[in-house]
Amino acid sequence: MSEPEVGVATQGQGAAQGAGGGDGRPKSVYFFGDGRAEGNARMRDVLGGKGAGLAEMTNAGIPVPPGYTITTAACRQFFEAGGRLLDTIVQEEEQALRRLERYLGRRLGDPENPLLVSVRSGAPISMPGMMDTVLNLGLNDQTMAGMERRSQSPRFALDSYRRFIQMYSDVVLGIPRALLERELKRTKARAGAVHDVDLTPEQLRGLVERFKTIVRREIGVDFPQDARAQLAGARDAVFRSWHTERAVHYRRIHSIADDVGTAVTVQAMVFGNLGATSATGVGFTRDPSTGEPRFYGEYLLNAQGEDVVAGIRTPRPIEEMENELPQAYGQLREITSRLERHYRDVQDFEFTVEEGRLFMLQTRRAARTGIAALRIAVDMVEEGLLTKREAIERVEPDHLDQVLHPVLDPAARRRHERIATGLPASPGAAAGAIVFSSEEAARRGAHERVILLRAETSPDDIAGMHAAQGILTATGGMTSHAAVVARGMGKCCVVGCSALLIDESARTVRVGGRTLREGAFLSLDGSKGDVLLGDVPTTDSEVVRVLTGRLQPDQAPLYQRFERLTAWCDEERRLRVRANADIPRDAKIARQLGAEGIGLCRTEHMFFAPERIPHVVTMILNAQQARDAGIRIERLKAELSEAPRSERPRIRKELEREQREGREPIRAFQGALAKLLPLQRADFKGLFLAMEGCPVTIRTLDPPLHEFLPKRDQLEKEIAALGRARKDDPRRRRLERTLARVEELHEFNPMLGFRGCRLGILHPEITRMQARAIFEAAAQVLQAGKRVIPEIMIPLVGDPEELRRQRAEVETVAAEVMRRLQISIPHTIGTMIEVPRAALLADEIAQYADFFSFGTNDLTQMTFGYSRDDSGRFLPEYVGTGILRQDPFVSIDTRGVGTLLQRAAFAGRRAKPGLKIGICGEHGGDSASIEFFEVVGLDYVSCSPFRIPLARLAAARAALRRA
User: Fold this and answer.
1) How many CB atoms lie within 10 A of CB 8?
2) Dihedral sign (CA 931, 935, 937, 938)
3) Residues 400, 405, 410, 414: what is their CA dihedral angle, to the nearest 10 degrees?
4) Which distant-in-sequence residues (6+ apart) come within 8 Å of 428 by Cβ?
5) pLDDT-based confidence at 459, cuts 50/70/90?
6) Share of the chain above pLDDT 90, in %
7) With bands split at pLDDT 50, 70 and 90, how would you rate the model's confidence at 610?
8) What DSSP string runs through 134-195?
9) Could you tell me if 775 and 814 are in contact, meaning their C-beta atoms sit under 8 angstroms apart?
10) Which of 109, 199, 478, 765 has its CA 20 to 30 A from that of 74?
11) Which of 245, 264, 266, 248 is nearest to 256 (CA)?
12) How far apart are CA 544 and CA 560, in angstroms?
């Protein structure tokens, strides 16, 4: 076969043949075989990934066992009809089955020359191991005897039959797999067999009979002997597996829609368990953990595919196959290389060698880690396989997140004993308390770090794998279920650690001469496969070490690829990316990660330093008293100026009393502001220098005041601890006064209370102090010859008048500072749109705003009426049961919050053309939300520093999709 054959037959062939049945109905069953297929690679949505891949390989002349695929539309109809296929689809399948029987010269259920098939799932988006498969279908007592005669290998026929009974009983009949698995273990123990292949034909024959007895006991009837009834049962069970708990959970994790459905592929069996010249294996055209361009995979002689992926036997590295099956190995290398060049992507493939003859069972886009995704994309551009734009599409934003993941600290790990080594299935670092079940991992993982420790994982473990920090298994290889799923999740994973002796019933593991109980701490190095005792601290990734000057770029190939990819992203994206940063250190890292400014500086975060809290508390506790005293003093002064002479002595006395009583809170309030002013000025100067030449958006003080104040319970305890101290004890009086003010300032719903612009309107001195600090800092930076772009943002505005008043305060201070220092400071003043009323009045508010920045955290909270702090009690259930598609605090709710945002943006720009609009909530770092912001036409997003590369990539992908 020459290389151009791949894909030549796919141009239009599948689409033309698959347009519909002869009566105009949409086609529901697609055949492949004899070098021709009715589908092709472009039909993933119809045939699923597996069916489309098989069709494409068949058309290319690659050796693929023939079969047919029932479409995803049939799956949807299956559920709409209450769990049964339409008669027309059943008839169409029967025609395809007869065509398969004619082509192979074997019949399903024929005692003399039986056709055996596999029944497999295949969704359009890969869901490895999450749905069901049945192999060796068509075996019964008679066909097993026929296979025994034809193959002249009783062991092969009996081994295939016992496998089929095990799988069919679990998937179709609903018999707990542990019952049959327990009987298999007993049989091996009695025979002194280590592996299944060690059982003799007679031992297998007895095992098959015991299996059938268990089936009869569990369901009340004999194991099904009608081959066509077996096929219908398996087909329907595979469709039903779309809605198993593990499949639903996987879709939630990976944001896959529930209404897509799975295709079902029925394919003639080829056998890797026919003896020493037969084998089965899985592999990748490049290393899916590191991206290294090396042929990568595993195989087992005399085995079936489930043995490899389920970790039942620890498989062997695929390169050893060259010595044992050299012809098949050479053909495998040729075919898989062609497949990678044809698809221009790394392929995950499955194969079987039947008595020396190679068959390809699957090819699909390989799941990969973030490190691998980055390397593969950049390397394929250099190799001429991809364009830069295609490379951007091949790397997911979450992949870049993994590239920034921490690793085990090299210095710290030397102090911890390495107790075992397994296979490095998925890189990264993880440490946590060991647990021995998926259920326990899911329960404890919600509030603590756990490591899921299993002999091997199964698809049913998906919830625990998701909750755990890392996964460790005693068996299995680099292509086992644990390895494949962990890589897809970006979880640290070590597999095949044979030193582990696990006792799940006792919840203990024996390793290295010691016994560890559930709850003991282990640390995993997913890049090396090491298992260490205890909680090993982590350190920054290679990329972060370069950014912080601890590693030279020329010594960091991963960083070099990271820089190349993000630079390509910057060429394509329209949306600017800023950082949410409050201190210069974070701003510097953000700048190095590609931030083009600060989109949100939360000034309240600057106040939490221990040396500043006392000044902030003093400011808060005295603000209202100072305001009230000031109002009374000004009122009395006005009365004094207008009062008759006879009334003036009385008013003067009252004024003096008010001035005496108000002096302390006024002095304390003003003194606190005076102490905070230079601290804020230094803060802002540091940010301006770190972001030289880039805009810096500074939000005036916003948080609920209770966050700064002493807790009432603590104050009461301190007063009680003074015991019988005199009432006039200075400390007691101070504590009692503080407690009284805390109780006065108590709010029932502080998130909707006295905060944001409301604080600045009642206490404009606070806004003026912050504005003065901003403009004096900007002046110092400008005088040093550096460019500065301050943007002042007023929070929690719900009415245009609020913004007008606060803007006036800021402009007054700006004019005074610029006049006094004889300097011009270009600046803008805008507002956060985070109150639904502000979104509805955006056109009016725009009159006083130079920019809008959507605070989507609070906007989501107020639109839904969900408390961000308390919604964790019900939101997981809402998402899990389908009330909501996703957590609205993670991805923007496009129907509700998104509609408000879109309307506000349109209204604001209609009132003020060219109005700059951004977003500074947590959604600024979420890829799905960024795609929505691109469509809406926002100017920038702002997110936490370490999500900036993700945002740059997501913005580029969104721009490419929109184009």
Assistant:
1) 12
2) negative
3) -140
4) 369, 402, 405, 406, 407, 470, 490, 491, 492, 526, 527
5) confident
6) 66
7) confident
8) EEEET--HHHHHHHHHHHT-HHHHHHHHHHHHHHHHHHTS---HHHHHHHHHHHHHHHT-SS
9) yes
10) 109
11) 248
12) 12
SS3 track for 460-472: HHHHHHHHCCEEE
* pLDDT score for 24: 59
How confident is residue 677, by pLDDT bands cut at 50, 70 and 90? very high
**pLDDT exceeds cutoff 90 at 682:** yes
Global pTM value: 0.80
Distance, CA of 365 to chain centre = 19
Pick from 311, 335, 313, 331: which is nearest to 322 by CA? 331
* Token reading at 913: 């053309």
Dist CA 247 CA 261 (whole Å): 11
> Mean pLDDT throughout 85-103?
96
Inter-CA distances, 932 with 568, 577, 858, 895, Å? 21, 15, 18, 11
Which of 255-259, 423-427, 788-792, 949-953 comes out lowest in average pLDDT? 423-427
Look at the alpha carbons of 593, 597, 603, 607 in this order and tell me if their dihedral is positive or negative: positive
Pick the catalytic residue: 492, 493, 920, 943? 920
Nearest residue to 463 (alpha-carbon basis) of 244, 203, 206, 634? 244
Nearest one of 508, 499, 540 to 417, comparing CA atoms: 499
Kindly tell me if the per-residue pLDDT of 4 is higher than 50: no
Considering only 122-126, 577-581, 875-879, 935-939, which range has the smallest mean pLDDT? Answer: 875-879
Cα dihedral 47, 51, 57, 59 sign: negative
The Cα–Cα gap between 595 and 599 comes to 9
Residue 67: closest CA among 26, 101, 28: 101
Rounded Cα distance between 92 and 38, Å, is 14
The span from the CA of 633 to the CA of 563, in Å, is 62
Active site residue 920: yes
pLDDT-based confidence at residue 726 (cuts at 50, 70, 90): low
> What average pLDDT does range 736-741 have in this prediction?
77
Q: Are 52 and 38 in contact (CB under 8 A)?
A: no
Least reliable range by pLDDT among 27-36, 216-225, 309-318, 645-654: 309-318
d(CA 449, CA 432): 5
pLDDT at 15 (0 to 100)? 38
Residue 222: Cβ within 10 Å count: 11
Candidate from 167-171, 379-383, 534-538 with smallest mean pLDDT = 534-538
Among this protein's residues, is 497 annotated catalytic? no
Q: Give 555's contacts (C-beta < 8 A, 6+ positions apart).
A: none
- Strands of 700-825 (E only): list them: 789-794
Is there a contact between 77 and 89 (Cβ–Cβ < 8 Å)?
A: yes
**Candidate list 481, 706, 763, 923, residue with the active-site label:** 481
Q: Give CA–CA dist 494/471, Å, rounded.
A: 6
Q: Which residues are paired to 515 by β-bridges?
A: 510
Whether residue 271 is predicted with pLDDT greater than 50 in this model: the reply is yes
Q: Is the pLDDT of residue 590 over 60?
A: yes
630: exposed, middle or buried (Cβ count in 10 Å: 0-12, 13-18, 19+): middle
Q: How far is the C-alpha of 211 from the C-alpha of 46, rounded, in Å?
A: 38
Query: Cβ(161)–Cβ(138) under 8 Å?
Result: no
Contact 14, 38 (CB under 8 A): yes
Alpha-helix residue ranges (DSSP H) falling in 277-325: 305-309, 321-324
pLDDT digits (tens, 9 = 90+) for 15-61: 333 445 555 578 999 999 988 999 999 999 999 999 999 999 999 99
